[in-house]
Amino acid sequence: MDKVRFTSIGGIIELIREFGVDPAHVSKKAGFSSTVLDAYSPADYVEYNDMETLLQTAADMTACPYFGALLGTRQDLTMLGLLGHVMQHSPDIQAALVEMIDHATMQVPSGAALQLKTAGEYSSVLYQVTGKQPVVTQTNELSISICNRFMAILCGSGWSAAEVHFTHREHGDIAPYRRIFGAQVKFNQDENRLIFRSDILKKSITKSNPELRDILKTHPDLVQSDANNSLTERIEQIIRRTLPTGACTIERSASLLSMHRRTLHRRLQSEGTSFSEVLQNTRKKIAAERLRNSSISIVQLAQYLGYADNSAFTRSFKRWYGATPQQWRNKMGK
Questions:
Q1: What pTM was computed for the model?
Q2: Res 281: pLDDT
Q3: How far is it, in rounded angstroms, from Cα 177 to Cα 116?
Q4: pLDDT of amino acid 212
C-alpha cells in the first residue's frame, strides 16, 4: 500500500485551529481516531489515500479549499530529518534538489515521485503520483507548496517561482494560490510542477559545508534509501515524463538509464514485469487520474497517453475499467 510520513503535515493542528475548528473533529470525520494528530511520531506512516482524505476533510471543515497549499507554507527542511541537513550543506541548488529527488523514498516510500526537468531558460520540479490514488487534489497542492517552501529556504530572499502548474481543476478563486506561491498558478495542466529560471540551479547555498554533506551521505539511512527504488518504479517515472513527448519507447528509457535495451528487458523480467506491462499500467493510472481530477477532453487525453487515435484509447480503457472513458467519468461524477 502506498504511504507517506506523517511529518509531511507538520503544523496541521495549529492551522486547523486558526480557522476555529477542532482538529479532533477533523480527525474523526476523516476516519481517524480523535487523537491521531496529537499522538503520531516522526517515524509513523499513513496510507496515501488516507492522507488525501484527511487533508480534504480539513479543507471542507475549515472552508479553505486551498488548505493543502497553505499547509505547505508551514513546512521546513527539518521535516526531512537527515536528508534536510544534506540538502542544506549541498554546494548549490541543483545539488540540493538532486539529493531530495534521489532520496524521496525516505519521505514517500511509494505512490509518488519527484523529478527535476531542465529545458533551456526554465527548469521545474515535477511531482507525479505513481500509485493508485483516485483523488490527489490536496496532496498535489501540499507537495508543490512544500517544494516551493524548500526553494525559498535554500535560495533566500532571491527566490521567486515563474509559474505553478496543477493537473486537477481549480476549486474556485485562484487569488489565494497566487498569494501562496507568489507566481501565476494554472490548473488542468499536463503535470504538477514548480517552474523557475534555470540560472537558479547554479545559485550557491549560503553557509553550506560540502565536507559535512559528504559525511552525512554515508549514513545507513541514506544508503538504504538508494536501494529502495525498484527499476519498475524508475521506468514508470520515465514513462510519465516521456509519454507526452511521443518518445516513450524502451530504447529511450534504456538510454536515459544508461543501459542497453536487452539489459533493461532482463532486469525488468527479474522483477516480474516488462516494459510493455509497465507502460500499460502507467497509462491506466494516468487515465483514471486525469479523468477524475481534471477537465481534460477524451481526445486530448488519448493524445497525451500516446495513442494513435481516440478509438484505440477507448478500447484500452474499456478493457481496464469495463466502460468508455466518458461513461467512467460520468459515473465518477465529473
A1: 0.74
A2: 92
A3: 22
A4: 85
Q: What is the DSSP string of 27-43?
A: HHHTTS-TTHHHH--TT
Residue labelled with grid coordinates 541543483: 94
Task: Establish how many alpha carbons lie within 13 A of residue 59's alpha carbon, considering only the half-sphere containing its beta carbon.
Answer: 19
CB 19 within 8 A of CB 13: no
Query: Given phi > 0 = left and psi -120 to 50 = alpha, else beta, which region is 20?
Result: left
C-alpha cell of 196? 523557475
Name residue, grid cell 541537513: 85
Mean pLDDT per 10-residue segment, the chain (334 residues): 79 95 94 82 78 94 97 92 88 91 74 84 89 77 96 92 94 92 94 95 89 76 58 84 82 85 91 94 89 86 90 94 93 71
Taken in order of first residue, the domains within the chain and their CATH numbers are: 65-202 (no CATH), 231-331 (1.10.10.60)
Task: Give the H/E segment covering residue 112.
Answer: strand 112-119
Task: Judge whether 222 and 264 are in contact, CB under 8 Å.
Answer: no
Q: Rounded CA gap, 47 and 61, in Å?
A: 21
Q: Which sign does the torsion angle of CA 174, 175, 176, 179 carry?
A: positive
- Cα–Cα dist 318/324, whole Å: 5
Q: What pLDDT sits at residue 183?
A: 96
**How confident is the model at residue 255, as a pLDDT?**
85
Residue carrying C-alpha cell 534536510: 84
